[in-house]
Write a structure and sequence with these properties.
The structure is a single chain. The protein has six helices and five strands. It has about 160 residues and is of the alpha/beta class. The strands form two sheets. The protein has a three-stranded parallel sheet with strand order 1-2-3, sandwiched between helices. The chain has a two-stranded parallel ribbon with strand order 4-5. Strand 1, helix 1 and strand 2 form a beta-alpha-beta unit. The termini are far apart.
């Protein structure tokens, strides 16, 4: 079965990578979809996020990366993807993701959502926290892949 793992991935984290890796054992094909949220201000451009995630998923032949500018369910219907993968770290994530899945279900009842609980060691890993830590020179190397850590340092050390 083909599944999508959508998110803004700004920046991509080891928590994201963990969900992707675990998904490869469950689904035949996974498309990591970089979504655009008009309410967010991004640290990395779409092109940078695509490049970073493409490098992260290189070990898995059944994982690809795409970009979606519009409604996710429309993208999924156009590409014949019947399933959305969402990672949840706790009750707050589940509440938000549950409501999002209900909205998606109202828009496209044929598309299902499955939830992957996070590996406990990644339950505190959030892209927003990583951005803030990196901005102030904090060590985020335990939360992001090496290529993301290098990219964060390059951006946050720039004048």
């Amino acid at each position: 079965m083909k599944a999508a793992f959508p998110g803004s991935f700004d920046p991509p984290t080891l928590g994201h990578l963990n969900v992707i890796q675990r998904s490869t054992a469950v689904f035949d094909e996974i498309v990591v979809i970089i979504a655009e949220n008009r309410q967010k201000e991004y640290l990395f451009t779409v092109e940078e996020r695509v490049k970073l995630i493409s490098a992260m998923v290189k070990p898995w032949k059944n994982v690809s990366v795409a970009f979606c500018r519009g409604l996710m369910v429309e993208f999924l219907k156009e590409h014949g993807i019947p399933l959305i993968i969402r990672g949840v770290r706790g009750e707050g994530d589940f509440s938000y993701e549950f409501e999002l899945s209900m909205m998606n279900r109202a828009l496209a009842p044929e598309i299902e959502t499955v939830f992957f609980t996070t590996d406990p060691k990644f339950c505190m890993v959030r892209s927003s926290v990583i951005r803030e830590l990196a901005y102030f020179g904090g060590d985020v190397s335990a939360m992001v892949p090496p290529e993301v850590n290098r990219a964060l340092k390059k951006i946050t050390e720039a004048p």
